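Dear Dr. H.,

I hope your travels went smoothly. While you were away I took the liberty of generating a structure for the chain from your last submission, since the lab meeting agenda had it listed for discussion. I wanted you to have the full record in hand beforehand rather than looking at slides cold. The sequence, exactly as received, is reproduced here:
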Amino acid sequence: MTSRWKLIIGGLTAAAALGTGAVAFAGGDDVATVPDVPTPTGSEHTVTVPGTGTVKVEPDTASVNLGVQVTKPTGAEAMEQVNTDAAAITEALVASGIAEEDIQTSGLSLYSTTGDDGSTVTGYNASLSVNVTIRDIEAVGSTIDTAQQAGGEDFTIGGVSFSFADPESVLEQARIDALANARAKAEQYASAAGVELGGVVSIVEGASYPPIIYGDARMEAAAADQAGPPISPGQLDLTIDISVTFAIS
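The corresponding predicted structure, in token form, is as follows:
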């Protein structure tokens, strides 16, 4: 066995993702490997590690799922009432300043209800929901209140989520931190293997911007005062995940 070694650490390479988190060393004609770790391509003297960086921001956009749900003796009556209520909500939202393109139908259902015998139809339940994009965080509560007043007793809320409209404007620091995180890991592996860490060979980025979710999958709206229900958007974690390949010698 020669003194020339290579260290391959599971993760994304420029060509493929190993995805196993395994480590393999090789030198000369003798190879010590972990099963199912594919043979790398490209440089024979590299180490590939993941890196993560996160920045916190205050949300500037909300998405609210609103709707109506009714039960009537016939399916036609149920659908007619749902359509009437939904139209009233949409009209009220547009009048309050919500753009029509920010109101999108997200669900429509109609099903029969049965009696205790499980077979006799006693009525029909219909529901319709819309996703409303609100670009003024301060207006979330009042927007929900407006929709509730228009929808009346049939009104429902499916949930609220918050997001940040322009993540690219704040992700520079997250990328810097992700690279520093990856370099720290690579230095640890290089030190453990007795090799010198070199420059960056490649960087592969994947991003995750999870929204903050508020509310149940379906909850009936309680009576709201003029200020609307209390809504707390909190903060968002915008995270950058990268895979960095460094040269080693």
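Two observations you may find useful: Residues 188 and 197 are 10 Å apart (CA to CA). The domain at 6-57+172-210+241-248 is CATH 3.30.110 (Translation Initiation Factor IF3).

With kind regards,
E. W.
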